[in-house]
TrEMBL record, chain A:
Boundaries of every Tripartite ATP-independent periplasmic transporters DctQ component domain copy: 40-172
InterPro entries on file: DctQ (IPR055348), TRAP_DctQ (IPR007387)
Pfam families named among the record's database cross-references: DctQ
Recorded topology in the membrane: Multi-pass membrane protein
GO cellular component terms, semicolon-separated: plasma membrane
Localization (cell): Cell inner membrane
PANTHER family, per the entry: 2,3-DIKETO-L-GULONATE TRAP TRANSPORTER SMALL PERMEASE PROTEIN YIAM
Subunit composition and interactions: The complex comprises the extracytoplasmic solute receptor protein and the two transmembrane proteins.
Gene Ontology MF: a single term: transmembrane transporter activity
Protein name: TRAP transporter small permease protein
Segments traversing the membrane: 27-48, 60-79, 99-123, 154-174
UniProt KW keywords: Cell inner membrane, Cell membrane, Membrane, Transmembrane, Transmembrane helix, Transport
The keyword Nucleotide-binding appears for this protein: no
TrEMBL record, chain C:
Annotated protein name in UniProt: TRAP dicarboxylate transporter, subunit DctM
A Pfam family assignment: DctM
UniProt-annotated location(s): Cell inner membrane
GO-annotated molecular function: transmembrane transporter activity
Membrane topology term: Multi-pass membrane protein
Transmembrane segments: 6-39, 70-91, 111-142, 154-181, 193-215, 236-255, 267-285, 297-315, 327-349, 356-374, 394-424, 436-461
Organism: Planktomarina temperata RCA23
Superkingdom to which the source organism belongs: Bacteria
Function noted in UniProt: Part of the tripartite ATP-independent periplasmic (TRAP) transport system.
Record key words, sorted: Cell inner membrane, Cell membrane, Membrane, Transmembrane, Transmembrane helix, Transport
Principal location: membrane
GO cellular component: plasma membrane
Domain TRAP C4-dicarboxylate transport system permease DctM subunit: 12-457
Length: 209, 315, 466
């Protein structure tokens, strides 16, 4: 994995926790990729059914809508682990040392704030669609074939909770770097210069060829 | 007091009673009680009931068929072939069901109070190619129809395919569907009429039910005077909606002629065969399903039938 | 405080956070959540007893957005388009394309550079991402050009510029994102990107030939391929043609009924490239890698989408877009002039920001203003300021802003494509690439001016769809 070089490791418990979380995050992200892959087959199946057998896939749209949260949310923590979420690094890319760690600590803490709020809010969203007393525990169903909505809605707080754990590790990592004045802290994504980024991308492509 | 109202799409016949209500309420309270109608800015249409439950806004419109599990009770009004003949009857049966304790109780779980309906005419279908006028023709037909209507078509061998209303034209053009079931205003505003070769004038397979609800807390915290104004303006708004829709229906025949769309009449024999095959089993299944969940399905269905009878007697 | 001020303060706060490096998705989500709360508590006159209630309502509104907005059929195009691009590497379509382009068109002046442009345009038809295209062709095309004596800065510039074609020529993730944000027909927008994309490629090719004719040392033609060799180069590149045909025919079939929705077209295209990749030796290890990479890029994009949509939900309650478009339309300036100012603002913004982030953050406010400028969503062509109806204006503006975003990929100081090309080649500095790309940068300026002056280039194809 080309981008993994940006997170350093050592034998501290923080780095161990970082590495312990990683396989979980990678599995989640792989699910996201597999869901994209399944869209492809779903469409091929639906189109050929319609074109050649006059038998379109009933509930095609419902299945896609159910797959979308898997695609969109399952990998959210994996991407955060490598610092992959898009940002503007004009300013932060120029910072060094404690100023850098302070800025990173601030923004990561703010991310945790919004993610905690969203865990609460997306759980409530799930909870409104879920009722133990109802058939299939469902209090919200899809438009075409009436599949329950709650499993897809539940994915959001689950994926965000994993992200929250990741964010706590990063807060500790940046906090440690800030307090101890570290140069190359573990368990947090280190900023690559844009040249390094391009280099990593190119190396990754080379691997693939 | 200022209320936020969440509807969707663009302003059309389907939302005129909401606009009228806002206008009446504001006029009658000298601008003390206003409504700010938002077309999609406050919520996605599927989530309007959630928004009411949260308290995100005070009033909203939704359609039962979008999410039957959220509103099992009012789906009685979406059963196929109920025999509703016009919008006035649709209003009568809807409001009778809305007043039933099972409906109010279910909506109260969403912190919602049913205020009025958005009466829709029968969802007759437009189609491309040769007209389909017999049950045999419906076999293998790809039809854009949701909810109970979709089930009805499925029971005679059609394949219901749900695309969103906004995608219906594209779906028709691309052959994803052969036919689209819509109310007339929607055939006009979503352009499906432009693509159509024919329209069934008497299939009358059923319709969707789209209530307008208010948040219970917001409703109860209105001053007595404002609440009275809101309640008494409902009938006037519905009246206006019906007038406006009647004008649109008058224009309908001209539109058909202008676009060269053939009117397809289905024989009584075919219609009753369709009803026997679609309406009866679907209704029986619906009632059994509801009763199993402790919802008085039979009672609700009977309520619709007696209301329909009484409305006709009254006229 | 009135809702507009709350809207402005919150937006300002968000921009500061983005500027100091907070991840865009979460900065927007935070701004939306805080704004929703502020608006609500303001409505309660900051009554401490109602703090909890305001917080609960705003948390729940914000918490609804991610699932409810992401679970949409049209959005499924984005991951599909990304997957096609990754699978295309394993189907070895890039080399096949370059080889075919070289054998067929390298005989013109500046031949290899022209071939590179057409190969990147062809690859754009299976790739939704510009940066990836630039990286791949930097490896394949630059060495060949250097081998026959091309100026190295020029060779690098060709590749950096050619890469940008991927976002206009369908499939394009960024066009889908635009369509979703402004709620327009995805199929029409994809279709609309086709001609401007091809047009940009032609402008680049014309420019290269011109340069090659004037400065003899830039790049000699390559001749000597037999017809047999030429035809032999075609089959490996065929899947590209299949994908183009499929996507076009799913959206619009000139010979009768179209085949399906764009969503299906994208997915079937991916399926074909997948089969090709299997045939060319892709196995589970490579597939897993492609899936993980697809997941990463998809999650990055979707996170921004839902984050920004939380902010947009707040804007809906604050009605900021309405006020902004009222202000724009009240300006005492010609609408076209205002439009040009908006495009210039994008050029400046694009120098510092990522393209997708830039569009997502600005469109919720800017798009309604542009539509209002034209005379509103339902205006007819006759009554409009730009001479086109609302739908067409939405398409035209979409292509213009996406072209602007592409333009920014090759402008200093953060033209990402240039960094990527320099990163791939040890013998090139970023300055070299920026120097080499300068003519293309000017060509893009000309292209954009032409698209503004002659909207027909953009609108002809989608107007056929009706
Ligand atoms: Na592309
Ligand atoms: Na730039």
């Amino acid at each position: 994995m080309a981008s993994s070089s940006s997170v350093l490791q050592d034998e501290s418990w923080l780095s161990r926790a970082d590495r312990a979380l990683l396989p979980v995050e990678r599995i989640f992200a792989l699910f996201s990729g597999l869901a994209v892959f399944s869209l492809m087959f779903l469409a091929a199946y639906s189109v050929s059914g319609r074109k050649f057998f006059n038998q379109p896939l009933n509930g095609y749209v419902d299945y896609i809508e159910a797959a979308m949260p898997v695609i969109a949310f399952m990998g959210v923590s994996y991407v955060q682990r490598f610092g992959g979420h898009i940002r503007m690094d004009m300013i932060i890319g120029k910072m060094r040392g404690r100023v850098l760690w302070a800025l990173e600590l601030l923004t990561v803490t703010l991310i945790l704030v919004v993610i905690l709020a969203l865990i609460w809010g997306s759980w409530a969203h799930f909870d409104r669609s879920f009722d133990f007393a109802k058939p299939l525990w469902s209090r919200d169903s899809s438009i075409d074939i009436g599949i329950p909505m709650w499993p897809a809605k539940l994915l959001v707080p689950v994926a965000f909770s994993l992200l929250a754990v990741r964010l706590v590790l990063q807060i500790i990592g940046y906090g440690r770097a800030l307090v101890l004045g570290l140069e190359r802290p573990v368990a947090v994504p280190l900023i690559l210069t844009i040249e390094e980024q391009a280099m990593a991308e190119a190396a990754h492509l080379a691997e693939q060829e | 007091t200022e209320w936020n109202v969440s509807v969707w799409g663009k302003r059309r016949a389907f939302t005129e009673h909401v606009e009228k209500l806002a206008e009446l309420v504001s006029a009658k309270t000298n601008g003390e009680f206003t409504m700010n109608v938002s077309y999609g800015g406050l919520s996605k249409n599927r989530e309007n009931l959630d928004g009411i439950s949260i308290g995100a806004f005070e009033m909203a419109q939704f359609c039962a068929g979008y999410h039957p599990d959220k509103n099992r009770v009012v789906t009685v009004l979406e059963l196929p072939f109920l025999g509703v003949a016009n919008l006035a009857e649709e209003v009568a049966v809807s409001h009778a069901v809305y007043a039933h304790p099972a409906a109010t109780e279910e909506m109260a779980q969403w912190n919602a109070r049913l205020l009025m309906t958005s009466p829709m005419p029968q969802y007759n279908i437009v189609g491309t190619g040769d007209p389909r006028s017999t049950l045999a023709d419906f076999e293998g037909m790809r039809v854009r129809a949701t909810g109970g209507l979709g089930k009805a078509f499925a029971s005679v061998g059609s394949v219901p395919t749900s695309v969103t209303a906004t995608e219906a034209y594209q779906a028709m053009e691309s052959g994803v569907v052969d036919t689209v079931a819509f109310a007339q205003h929607a055939h006009l505003s979503y352009g499906t009429i432009n693509r159509a070769d024919w329209w069934t004038e008497n299939l009358n397979p059923g319709t969707v039910n789209c209530p307008v609800v208010v948040n219970i807390d917001a409703y109860e915290s209105l001053s007595d005077a404002h609440r009275a104004v809101l309640d008494e303006s409902v009938d006037e708004s519905i009246e206006y909606y019906l007038e406006n829709y009647a004008k649109l229906l008058q224009r309908w025949d001209d539109v058909l002629a202008e676009k060269g769309v053939e009117k397809v009449t289905i024989s009584d024999a075919e219609l009753s065969a369709f009803r026997a095959q679609a309406a009866d089993p679907i209704r029986a299944a619906w009632i059994a399903d509801m009763e199993a969940q402790g919802i008085p399905g039979q009672e609700l269905f009977d309520l619709v039938m007696t209301t329909l009878e009484n409305t006709r007697k009254g006229n | 405080m009135d809702p507009i001020s709350i809207g402005l303060w919150t937006t300002g706060g968000m921009l500061v956070l983005v500027f100091i490096g907070m991840r865009v998705a979460f900065a927007a989500g935070l701004a939306g959540f805080v704004g929703l709360f502020w608006l609500r508590w303001n409505g309660f006159d900051y009554d401490p007893a109602k703090f909890g209630k305001a917080l609960t309502i705003s948390v729940k509104i914000a918490g609804q957005v991610p699932h409810s907005k992401i679970a949409a059929q049209a959005l499924s195009l984005i991951p599909t388009f990304i997957l096609i691009g990754y699978l295309a590497y394993y189907a070895k379509l890039t080399t096949a394309l370059f080889e075919a382009a070289k054998r067929w068109i390298a005989w013109v002046p500046g031949g290899l550079a022209v071939s590179t442009v057409f190969a990147t345009a062809g690859f754009a038809a299976v790739s939704g991402a510009s940066v990836a295209t630039a990286a791949v062709f930097a490896r394949i095309a630059i060495p060949e050009m250097l081998k026959i004596g091309y100026n190295k800065q020029f060779a690098a510039g060709v590749v950096a510029a050619g890469g940008t074609l991927a976002s206009l020529i369908p499939p394009s993730a960024i066009l889908v994102i635009y369509a979703i944000i402004v709620e327009q027909d995805v199929g029409k927008l994809l279709l609309a990107g086709f001609i401007p994309g091809a047009f940009s490629a032609l402008v680049y090719a014309g420019l290269i030939i011109g340069i090659a004719v004037i400065f003899k040392n830039v790049g000699p033609p390559v001749t000597g391929f037999t017809w047999r060799e030429r035809f032999a180069a075609l089959p490996p590149a065929l899947p590209i043609v299949a994908v183009v045909v499929i996507i076009i025919f799913f959206v619009y079939n000139p010979f009768g009924d179209a085949w399906g929705t764009p969503t299906e077209g994208g997915a079937v295209g991916a399926f074909i490239v997948f089969l090709m990749a299997l045939y060319r030796g892709m196995r589970w290890a490579q597939l897993k890698d492609a899936l993980l990479e697809t997941a990463k890029l998809t999650v990055m994009i979707f996170s921004i989408i839902w984050g920004v949509l939380i902010y947009v939900r707040f804007l809906g309650f604050a009605d900021l877009p309405g006020v902004f478009s009222d202000w724009i339309t009240s300006l005492d300036m010609a609408p076209l002039l205002i439009l040009i100012c908006i495009l210039l603002a994008y050029a400046v913004l694009g120098m510092f920001m990522d393209a997708i982030g830039m569009l997502l953050l600005t469109l919720p406010v800017v798009y309604p203003a542009v539509m209002a400028l034209n005379g509103g969503e339902f205006v007819t062509a006759a009554d409009s300021a730009f001479g086109m109806n609302g739908t067409m204006c939405a398409i035209w503006f979409g292509i213009l802003v996406v072209k602007m975003a592409e333009f920014c990929l090759i402008t200093p100081p953060i033209g990402l494509n240039c960094f990527v090309v320099a990163g791939v080649r040890d013998d090139l500095t970023v300055q070299d690439v920026f120097k080499g790309v300068t003519p293309f940068f000017l060509a893009d300026g000309v292209t954009i001016a032409l698209l503004v002056a002659f909207p027909g280039i953009v609108l002809w194809l989608p107007s056929l769809v009706g």
